[in-house]
Design goal:
15 strands; SPRY domain-containing protein 4; 1 helix; B30.2/SPRY_sf; six-stranded antiparallel β-sheet; B30.2/SPRY; SPRY_dom; mainly beta
């Protein structure tokens, strides 16, 4: 019961309870236009380079620093004042990265010091826009709330043992191995990993309910990671 209460607190949805959600994963949805693709041949060279995709951003989120950062506005914009498109998240404070990943091993980092409630990881590019990263089975993320970390996918949240809160964390994705890892950027060490079955294109994915996040992409994977 405590775990479900934590998940419900973490990912707030106005007017709906966590128990009323159902996972939707439309396999036949059309591909969002204008988004790039990263294949296995691009891995381990310059590293995945992406910006945050404004077309996917919930109306409570503003992008800044050339769309590499995102800030949460408690009141947000009137949904009627943002462009209506099928890529936009309508109920949850979520935004996707601009690139789609179809294979390979990729690494990026996120400055998290100015937020006390967020999620970061990857999600299916076709994930239903009524769902939230971490509660949808089409997403794999690490979440931080109430000074605690969790590894999340579907309706499952597993505590992650991490002392304190770093200013910056790394995310490592190995598509073929079905691996997503949270990385200590100072010690160059994997803190915790999630195993999943990745099917189809994935996007870097972020949920934010406080403060701001800043992404750092185009990085090479640290060579000492284990």
């Amino acid at each position: 019961m405590a775990m479900h209460a934590s998940v419900a607190h973490f990912c707030r949805l106005t007017g709906r309870s966590i128990g009323s959600l159902s996972v939707k994963w439309p396999r036949d949805a059309t591909q969002p236009a204008g988004r790039g693709y990263i294949s296995s041949s691009a891995a381990n060279n310059a590293g995945i380079q992406f910006r945050l995709d404004e077309r996917t951003a919930h109306s409570s989120l503003d992008l800044f620093k050339k769309d590499t950062g995102v800030i949460y506005r408690m009141l947000g914009l009137d949904p009627s004042h943002v462009q209506d498109n099928p890529e936009r998240f309508r109920d949850w404070a979520v935004v996707f990265g601009s690139e789609e990943i179809t294979g390979g091993r990729h690494y990026w980092e996120v400055t998290v010091q100015r937020s006390q409630e967020f999620r970061l990881g990857v999600a299916e590019a076709r994930m239903a826009r009524e769902d939230c990263v971490g509660t949808s089975a089409a997403s794999w993320v690490f979440g931080y709330a109430r000074r605690k970390w969790s590894a999340m996918t579907g309706d499952k949240a597993v505590p992650v043992q991490l002392v304190g809160k770093p200013e910056r964390v790394g995310v490592l994705l190995d598509y073929e191995a079905g691996l997503l890892a949270l990385v200590d950027t100072e010690r160059r060490k994997i803190i915790h990993s999630i195993r999943g079955r990745f099917r189809g294109p994935l996007c870097p994915a972020f949920g934010l309910w406080d403060g701001e996040l800043l992404t750092h992409s185009g990085l090479e994977e640290p060579g000492s990671l284990v």
